[in-house]
Automatic annotation (TrEMBL):
<protein>
    <submittedName>
        <fullName>Ribonuclease P protein component-like protein</fullName>
    </submittedName>
</protein>
<dbReference type="InterPro" id="IPR014721">
    <property type="entry name" value="Ribsml_uS5_D2-typ_fold_subgr"/>
</dbReference>
<keyword id="KW-0255">Endonuclease</keyword>
<keyword id="KW-0819">tRNA processing</keyword>
<dbReference type="Pfam" id="PF00825">
    <property type="entry name" value="Ribonuclease_P"/>
</dbReference>
<keyword id="KW-0378">Hydrolase</keyword>
<dbReference type="GO" id="GO:0004526">
    <property type="term" value="F:ribonuclease P activity"/>
</dbReference>
<keyword id="KW-0540">Nuclease</keyword>
<dbReference type="InterPro" id="IPR020568">
    <property type="entry name" value="Ribosomal_Su5_D2-typ_SF"/>
</dbReference>
<dbReference type="GO" id="GO:0008033">
    <property type="term" value="P:tRNA processing"/>
</dbReference>
<dbReference type="GO" id="GO:0000049">
    <property type="term" value="F:tRNA binding"/>
</dbReference>
<dbReference type="InterPro" id="IPR000100">
    <property type="entry name" value="RNase_P"/>
</dbReference>
<keyword id="KW-0694">RNA-binding</keyword>
Length: 96
């Protein structure tokens, strides 16, 4: 995963960004990273739960063979469910 942060393609805009790198495997792997603006573990875990649910819901739309890091700020969890989905899908359209 360290290579993902060194050599990657950045997509999206705050409050959600994706770092993507080819891994050459027949599946996609995900890393969920709330940033330091989340003051407590409760807020970080909530953001991770939301991201995991979005990935589960749209997994069939995500190409295989990539490592993905999803970076979110605290404002992501404050968005409405519909706005989060729109943001997620807009970044997914930029996927290589």
């Amino acid at each position: 995963m360290q290579e993902l942060f060194r050599q990657n393609r950045k997509m999206g805009r705050p409050p959600m960004r994706w770092l993507v790198r080819k891994n050459g495997l027949p599946f996609a792997s995900f890393l969920f990273c709330p940033d330091k603006t989340h003051k407590t573990a409760v807020l970080r875990n909530r953001s991770k739960r939301i991201l995991r649910e979005l990935v589960r819901k749209y997994l069939s739309s995500i190409p295989v063979g990539y490592d993905c890091a999803l970076l979110v700020q605290k404002d992501f969890a404050k968005l409405s469910k519909e706005d989060r989905e729109v943001l997620f899908l807009s970044v997914l359209k930029q996927f290589p």
